[in-house]
Amino acid sequence: MLKKDLRLKYQERRENLSIQQLDDYSLAIANQLLKIPIWDFSYYHLFLSISEKKEIDTSMVLSILQGKDKNVVLPKMVDHQNLINYLLTDNSIIKKNHWNIPEPVDGIEVPPKKLDVIFIPLLAFDLQGNRVGYGKGFYDTLLKTCRPDIIKIGLSLFLAEDLISDSEPHDVPLDYCVTPDRIYSF
Fold first, then answer.
1. Would you call 143 helix, strand, or coil by DSSP?
2. Tens digit of each residue's pLDDT (9 = 90 or more) over 81-107
3. Has UniProt tagged this entry with the keyword Membrane (predicted)?
4. Alpha helix segments (H runs only) across the chain
5. C-beta of residue 7 within 8 angstroms of C-beta of residue 164
6. Residues 6 or more apart in contact with residue 54 via CB below 8 angstroms
7. Taking Cα atoms as reference points, which of 70, 153, 57, 71 lies closest to residue 102?
8. Domains and CATH numbers, the chain
């Protein structure tokens, strides 16, 4: 299936979820993450959810990271395709941007090469680890500046598609994708 068709399909599937389903799925995904061997690292990049788009609630993942005393790094959009990464601290101020994405106002910048694990938002993914986001390229741009060994984990409310037929060479595949019912490893 083409990316544009998958975007429409999965945005509609999200819209049809109840708040209870979204909460249940988000908790199940957070619990699934505990089964992956990623907990010996220091710097974890985590996106904050756009509640209006019924994205997975990452607050539960954030609680796990904080409970394990990890350095949590949050993204901030700075232009049409770039993200700056800020360390989450007690002094971090989070505000929604013009797309309703919660992000830090400012803070201690963390260079992309320092990141060990990155949790990536997505709408859909396939059995090869290719993903479909909103189509702006923020995470593809960020991933090109990270270390090659960074662990890339997609968080998905739904199971994999067989194939995203228009994946491109510049698309960076995932290492894992975690759903409420399954962990995919690529």
1. helix
2. 899 999 999 999 999 999 899 999 999
3. no
4. 3-15, 19-33, 59-67, 138-143
5. no
6. 14, 15, 17, 22
7. 57
8. 3-73+112-185 (3.40.50.10420)
